[in-house]
Write a structure and sequence with these properties.
Elements: H1 16-22, E1 27-30, E2 33-38, E3 41-44, H2 45-57, E4 65-69, H3 75-87, H4 99-102, H5 105-108, H6 112-116, E5 134-137, H7 141-144, E6 154-159, H8 162-176, H9 183-194, H10 203-216, E7 221-225, H11 226-231, H12 233-243, H13 250-255, H14 257-264, H15 267-272, H16 274-278, H17 305-319
Parallel strand pairs: 4-5, 4-6, 6-7
Antiparallel strand pairs: 1-2, 2-3
The protein binds 3'-phosphate-adenosine-5'-diphosphate.
Keywords: Transferase
InterPro entries: P-loop_NTPase, Sulfotransferase_dom
Domain Sulfotransferase: 62-323
């Protein structure tokens, strides 16, 4: 079973040091394997190895941009938008097609702990786009910040209503394990998430770490919401461009450039591309699994009213006094 899992979810690539470390960590078992709690966050063992490798070996550059999220919160979309925003300053000739047409956003903006540093603390990063480097992570902010120290690099976090995240995770898990959509899987994801256990969870700690980070240091941490991006994409992409220091000019605003980027990065466009129908990530996950409905509120079709009110209650309690509302 272990061998069929994507490499970041397995437990077969640990250093002796990490084996010793995890033997002392709290753990829980889910359907995919053992999750270990390291500094308040749950990881499968190989991903934890990636986190440790990253913390040991990552050397930030001042211009780095890091896309951060909980899985299934809009990562693919934000990667595409950020990549497209930065690409527009590069003068491409008309016969040079956009990289987003031939590569998936996950191929263009690789994950730190789950891909680049998964196997080594000294990966070859020379293949990354030169400057700025675009990177991504699902780590919580306090873990990400360890090797960043006083680096002025920019972090963009995307957050999504956790009920929709849960349903999206459920579909994703069933799809990559080639299983029928099975309600038992949703129920166990729900039950463990409510207890604060789940890959990269507890979700409320994750969201709050970036929310507080964005309040404390708004020049370096931008907090975005999937729901706002759906409701007002024009305003949100402008916000993103301003934060990254590459604002749209008036000419760009009026000439339809923003609409073109939004169209290029739309779920409809990306999911229809050959690369996204047939390609796979470095961790052997079909790109097609990253595109589904992309709707706000799809959880209503799958969670019972009791499940919804339990999550609402948890969120209400955990986010109270934070200023964060859903
Ligand atoms: P990841 O964290 O594993 O990379 P992520 O991209 O965050 O996954 O989440 C996938 C969700 O984003 C899917 O939501 P759904 O299951 O509710 O449908 C997917 O459909 C949605 N998504 C992917 N690309 C886009 C896009 N271009 N625009 C809007 N939503 C998108």
């Amino acid at each position: 079973m272990d061998k069929e899992l994507p490499p970041n979810l397995r437990e077969d690539n640990l250093s002796e040091e990490t084996k010793t470390l995890i033997s002392s960590l709290p753990w829980e078992k889910d359907r995919l394997g053992k999750l270990y709690n390291y500094h308040g966050c749950w990881y499968y063992a190989n991903t934890l190895q990636g986190v440790l490798n990253f913390q040991k070996g990552f050397k930030p550059q001042d211009t780095d941009i890091i896309i951060a999220s909980l899985p299934k919160s809009g990562t693919t979309w934000l990667k595409a938008l950020t990549f497209a925003l930065l690409e527009r300053s590069k003068n491409r000739s008309s016969d040079d097609p956009h990289s987003l047409l031939s590569n998936n956003p996950h191929g263009l903006v690789p994950f730190l702990e789950a891909v680049l540093y998964l196997k080594s603390s000294k990966p070859d990063l020379t293949k990354l786009s030169s400057s700025p480097r675009l990177l991504s992570t699902h780590m919580p902010l306090h873990t990400l910040q360890v090797p960043l120290k006083d680096s002025p690099c920019k972090i963009v976090y995307v957050c999504r209503n956790v009920k929709d995240v849960l349903v999206s995770q459920w579909y994703f898990r069933c799809a990559y394990s080639h299983k029928e959509v099975d309600k038992n899987i949703l129920e166990s994801l729900f039950e463990s998430s409510c207890r604060g256990v789940g890959f990269y969870g507890p979700f409320w700690e994750h969201v709050l770490s970036y929310w507080k980070g964005s309040l404390d240091d708004s020049k370096h941490v931008l907090f975005m919401r999937y729901e706002d991006m759906k409701a007002e994409p024009f305003a949100q992409i402008k916000r993103l461009a301003d934060f990254l220091g590459c604002p749209f000019t008036e000419e760009e605003e009026h000439s339809g450039s923003i609409d073109k980027i939004l169209e290029l990065c739309s779920l409809r466009n990306l999911s229809g591309l050959e690369i996204n129908k047939t390609g796979k990530t470095e961790n052997n996950v079909h790109y097609s699994n990253f595109f589904r409905k992309g709707e706000v509120g799809d959880s209503k079709n799958h969670l019972t009213p009791e499940m919804e009110s339990k999550i609402d209650m948890i969120i209400g309690e955990k986010y109270k006094d934070s200023g964060l509302e859903f």
